[in-house]
Amino acid sequence: MPDWSISLFRIARIRLAVHVTFFLLLGYIAWEGWHASPEARWLGLTWSVTYTLLAFACVVLHELGHAFAARRFGINVSRILLLPIGGMAEFDRIPREPRQEIIIALAGPAVNFLLINLLLLLVTLPATMDEFLSFDLTFESLARHLLFMNAAMGCFNLVPVFPMDGGRVLRALLAKRFPYPLATFWAATVGKLFALAAIGFALTTMIITRNWVQGTLLATLFAFIFWAGENEYRHVKAEERFN
Ligand SMILES: [Zn+2]
Q1: Dihedral (CA of 63, 64, 67, 68) sign
Q2: How far is the CA of 176 from the centre of ligand 1 (A)?
Q3: What's the CA gap between 166 and 96, in Å, rounded?
């Protein structure tokens, strides 16, 4: 079955692939950049596309963090897939050892916090948040936006919503006290409830602000989290039956 993705190249024996919908996002970003500043259309387009590509490079580094940590425990990542909603490292198995799962889960956000420290060397921090995220077509503004994006990504992934990184830490902590399927059930239930609330919030905000693209992306992201949590729980249950 075609999975609508295009393989780009390998990094440290891991295949990097992009889903075709990623190019739709890039097209939209280019269009937005073109219209952002009527006096500097080409610069706006270049800035927006460069920012998006660098932001996704940070996503790849986050996923590589997981992959390298997993490799230490003999777990392979065959592919990192980039989607408009983020990246996904495809592990050949998920460790049942809580300590291993925690280390692998935390290695991703750790990369974002490392990148924040590197970016802090490049920017001077302004006094207000408005100034911080002000959009001007400079390298400094690009670095500031990347800094903000890494902070948001690092923190968002630590929210205990399974199967995001924080949710994996939650499952691993629960698995220290409870049987693995039960720990997965509770982590997935918390994750699914959060995902449902977030879908409702994203759709309501989308209707109020009429920001259709961002609203659709957010709702899709949380629908994906809901689906992935349910899917992984089913997988654990099925594994249990065979053992
Ligand atoms: Zn992650």
Answers
A1: negative
A2: 21
A3: 16
